[in-house]
C-alpha cells in the first residue's frame, strides 16, 4: 500500500487506489466529462455547456476595463502611481482588493447591504464553495444538505473535504420544505450535524427552477428555527426573463443565516475566474474574541490560492465601474439574448411536440437563466449522448450528472445560453430526430 | 456541538471550536500574521516579506504582455479572431492554456524536458501544493516529509487535508540524508506511509541554503530506492548570485521521482498568481488504463478553482514570449538587483558585527535568492518583532514561523528582495541597535 512500486524497477507508477477517494468519485469524473465532450464534437449544435453568450466579447474590453480600474485607483481612491502599480503587481489582501466595488454592486443590483469586510473575493465561485465547506467540515459527522438536482461543483467540493451531501427534494416552487425538515431530522437521528443547505434560488442549474417569494421567506424562517446556514449560490439571478426579479435570500435575511456565493463567470466573463462569498456570520474565536466568518474563510484561502489574481479583480471591477456598479446594466444586451433564446426554445419545443402528440415529451418553463429540462420517454444517459453527438450532431447534458442516484434517467438538461437563433432551430430539429428514433 | 446557537435568539454565531481544526493551527495564523504586519508599520524598513523587487513594475507591461499573447495566438497558433476571444474570455482547459509556452520555458531555463500534457497551470504554486497533497492523502496514514525549516504554505496545505508533516533536518549541503532515511524508518514503524518529501533545493525559503550537486544526486537515488516522491519547489532558482546555477532535481530525474512545483510570483509578478506542477508520473486507473498524475491533479483542480484565470496565463505567457521563453532573460535586471542586495547585506552585517566582536551574531552566506538567516544571542520571537517595528523601525521574520517546534528561537530571517541600497544600510543600522539593546 505504498505510493510507489518497489525501487530500482524503473519509473514511478502510482495507483489511483492509493490516492484520495474523490479521484474515483463520479462527481469529479462528471465535471471532466462535461467539460471535454464539447471539444470532441466541434460541429455538433451544443445545448450542453453552461457558458455565457460569446457574441459581445471583444479583446479590447480587457484593456478598457483594466484602464478604468487604474483610473479609479488613481483618481477616486487617490493612490499615488507606485501604489497603483503595487495593487496590480504585488501580493494583495487575502480577502481581495475590489471588495468595496463588489459590495456597492450588491447594493445596486441585489439590495444586499454587505459590509465589504465580510466579502472574500475568490477564484470563481467554486473556490468560495470549497472554502465554506472546508471551514464547516470539522469531522465525519458534519454534512451539507443540497437541493437536488444539485450543481456538480458543490458535490465535488464536498468530496474534497470528505463531507457527506444529503439531498433535499426540489419542488415546483423551488424546494420541498417538508422534505428539508425530514432530511434534517433523519440526519440528526443518524448522528450527523447538518451544517448548511446549498441551493440556487434563481434559475437553478440544472433545472432553471426558482423559489417563489413565500418559499424564500419560509425557508429563511425554517433555517433560523433549525440553526441551519443557507448557502445561496446566485450566478444567474441577473438573467431574468419575466421583468419581475425576486429578492435574493440574502437581502431578506435578518438573522445571518445566509452565506451568499457570487460569481462573475456569467455576468463578467469566465476567463476572469472571479467569484466571492459574503460571510457576515460572527465567529467566536479561541481567545473569546468575535470575528467574521469571512476571516475564517480567508485563513483557509491563504493556504489554497494565497489571494485572488489582482488582474482578474481589476478587470471585473473595471467592468462594474464602467456600468455604474450594475451587472444588470453591464449585461443589458446579454439579458435580451437569453430571454429571446428561452422563448425560442419553448416555442420550438411546442412546435415540434404539440400537446397530446407522440412520442410524449415534456419540459419545464423557467423564468430566466440558462437552462431548461426536457423529460423524454427513454434513458437520456451518457451512452445516448455519445450517440446523439455522433449520429445526430446535437449535444445536451444527462440529468443523472446532477443526481447522486438514478432517479433522473429520463431527463436531459438543455442549455440555451451559447447558441444563436439558427442553432436553436437546427439543434431542436436534430433533438427531435433523436427523440423520434429512440421512442420509435 | 451544532454549528449555530439555538434558534430564535438572534443572529447566527459560529464557534471556531466547531470549525475545521486548521483554523486553530499556528501555520494558518502565521501566514496571516506575516502578511499583515508589514501593513501595520508602513514606515519601518522591512526585511520581512518575500516579495519581489518592485522597481521595474510598469502598469503598461500588463497591456504589452497581453497583446503579445494575443499576437501569438493569432499569428503563431493561427487561431481565428473568435477563437482568440474564446481563449481569453471563456472557460478553458482545466490543466491550463499556456502549457506549451511554459514547457518551452522549462527547457530553455532549466533543462527540463516536460511533456506539456504533464503540466497543470495553477493559481500560484500554493494551489499546486494543495492539489498534490490532496491527491496523495488517502487516509490518516499518509504523511508528507518536509526539509525543515519549511515554507509555511506547505504546512498550511497539509493542514487543510489533515496530513501529517514530518520534519527532515537540513544541513549545510541542503538536507541531511541520514536524517531523511531515519525519518522514513520511524514513520513506517509508526504505521505511516510517507508519500513524498517537500523541499526547495535552490535558495530555500526561509534559509537561503541550496543543495550541492552530490546531495542532489544522492537524494534522487535515495528517493528511487525508497519509492518516495520528491516535491521540488523552485521559486528562486533563477536568482543565482554565483554565476553557476546547479541543475534542478527534475532535470536530473530519470525515474519520475520528482513532482516539480513552479511559481511565476517572483519571476513574473505576484498579482498574476500563476504557478504550475509538472506531474509526469504514471497512474494506474481503476479500469486498468494508465494516465498521468497531472490528470489526477486536474480532477482535483476542477473542484477547487475550475481553471486558472486565462488573463493571468496570457500575461505571463506574453512576458515569456517577449523574452525568448526565458525567465533568466526576462529577469536580467532583477537578478542583478538581488545579487547586489545580497552582497550589501553580507558586507553590511560584516561591518556592523566584525569577527570576534560582541554581541555574538552569526549569519549564513546564500548563493542567491531572497533570504538569509541571522542567529542572535536572544529570542527572536513575535513579541520582539513587534518591539523592533515599534521602537526601532525595522521588520524581519522570526524563524519559529517555519518550524513546528521551538528550536529556532534565536534565529531570524532577513529578506533583501524588496529593499533599496539605502534601506539596506538604514535597516541594518536599526537591526544592529535592536541587537545591541537586547544583548546589552
UniProtKB/TrEMBL annotation, chains A, B:
InterPro entries: Aminotransferase_I/II_large, Class-I_PLP-dep_aminotransf, PyrdxlP-dep_Trfase, PyrdxlP-dep_Trfase_major, PyrdxlP-dep_Trfase_small. Residues 99-431 form the Aminotransferase class I/classII large domain. Its cofactor is pyridoxal 5'-phosphate. GO terms for molecular function: pyridoxal phosphate binding; transaminase activity. Keywords: Aminotransferase, Pyridoxal phosphate, Transferase. Gene3D superfamilies: Aspartate Aminotransferase, domain 1 (3.90.1150.10), Type I PLP-dependent aspartate aminotransferase-like (Major domain) (3.40.640.10). Pfam families: Aminotran_1_2. This is Aminotransferase class I/classII large domain-containing protein. It comes from Streptomyces cacaoi. The lineage of its organism: Bacteria, Bacillati, Actinomycetota, Actinomycetes, Kitasatosporales.
Amino acid at each position: 500500500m505504498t505510493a510507489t512500486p518497489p525501487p530500482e524497477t524503473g519509473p514511478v507508477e502510482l495507483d489511483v487506489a492509493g490516492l484520495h477517494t474523490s479521484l474515483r468519485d463520479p462527481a469529479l469524473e462528471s465535471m471532466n466529462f462535461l467539460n471535454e465532450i464539447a471539444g470532441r464534437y466541434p460541429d455538433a449544435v451544443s445545448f450542453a455547456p453552461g457558458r455565457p453568450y460569446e457574441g459581445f466579447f471583444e479583446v479590447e474590453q480587457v484593456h478598457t476595463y483594466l484602464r478604468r480600474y487604474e483610473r479609479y485607483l488613481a483618481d477616486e481612491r487617490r493612490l499615488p502611481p507606485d501604489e497603483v502599480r503595487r495593487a496590480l503587481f504585488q501580493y494583495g489582501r487575502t480577502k481581495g482588493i475590489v471588495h468595496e466595488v463588489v459590495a456597492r454592486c450588491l447594493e445596486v443590483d441585489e439590495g444586499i447591504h454587505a459590509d465589504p469586510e465580510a466579502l472574500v473575493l475568490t477564484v470563481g465561485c467554486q473556490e468560495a464553495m470549497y472554502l465554506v465547506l472546508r471551514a464547516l467540515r470539522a469531522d465525519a459527522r458534519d454534512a451539507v444538505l443540497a437541493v437536488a438536482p444539485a450543481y456538480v461543483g458543490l458535490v465535488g467540493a464536498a468530496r474534497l473535504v470528505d463531507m457527506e451531501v444529503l439531498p433535499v427534494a426540489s419542488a415546483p416552487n423551488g424546494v420541498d420544505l417538508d422534505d428539508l425538515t425530514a432530511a434534517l431530522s433523519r440526519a440528526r437521528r443518524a448522528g450527523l450535524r447538518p451544517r448548511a443547505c446549498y441551493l440556487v434560488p434563481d434559475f437553478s442549474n440544472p433545472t432553471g427552477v426558482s423559489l417563489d417569494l413565500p418559499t424564500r421567506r419560509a425557508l429563511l424562517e425554517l433555517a433560523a428555527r433549525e440553526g441551519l446556514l443557507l448557502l445561496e449560490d446566485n450566478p444567474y439571478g441577473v438573467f431574468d426573463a419575466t421583468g419581475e426579479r425576486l429578492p435574493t435570500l440574502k437581502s431578506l435575511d435578518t438573522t445571518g443565516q445566509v452565506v451568499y456565493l457570487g460569481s462573475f463567470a456569467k455576468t463578467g466573463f469566465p476567463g476572469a475566474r472571479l467569484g466571492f462569498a459574503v460571510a457576515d456570520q460572527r465567529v467566536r474565536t479561541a481567545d473569546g474574541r468575535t470575528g467574521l466568518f469571512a476571516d475564517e474563510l480567508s485563513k483557509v484561502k491563504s493556504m489554497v490560492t494565497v489571494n485572488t489574481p489582482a488582474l482578474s479583480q481589476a478587470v471585473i471591477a473595471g467592468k462594474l465601474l464602467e456600468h455604474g456598479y450594475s451587472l444588470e446594466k453591464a449585461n443589458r444586451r446579454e439579458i435580451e439574448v437569453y430571454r429571446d433564446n428561452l422563448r425560442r426554445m419553448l416555442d420550438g419545443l411546442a412546435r415540434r411536440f404539440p400537446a397530446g402528440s407522440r412520442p410524449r415529451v415534456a419540459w419545464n418553463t423557467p423564468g430566466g437563466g440558462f437552462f431548461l429540462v426536457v423529460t423524454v420517454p427513454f434513458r437520456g444517459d451518457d451512452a445516448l449522448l455519445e450517440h446523439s453527438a455522433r449520429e445526430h450532431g446535437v449535444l445536451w447534458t444527462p440529468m443523472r450528472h446532477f443526481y447522486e442516484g438514478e432517479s433522473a434517467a429520463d431527463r436531459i438538461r438543455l442549455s440555451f445560453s451559447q447558441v444563436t437563433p439558427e442553432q436553436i432551430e437546427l439543434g431542436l430539429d436534430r433533438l427531435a430526430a433523436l427523440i423520434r428514433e429512440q421512442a420509435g
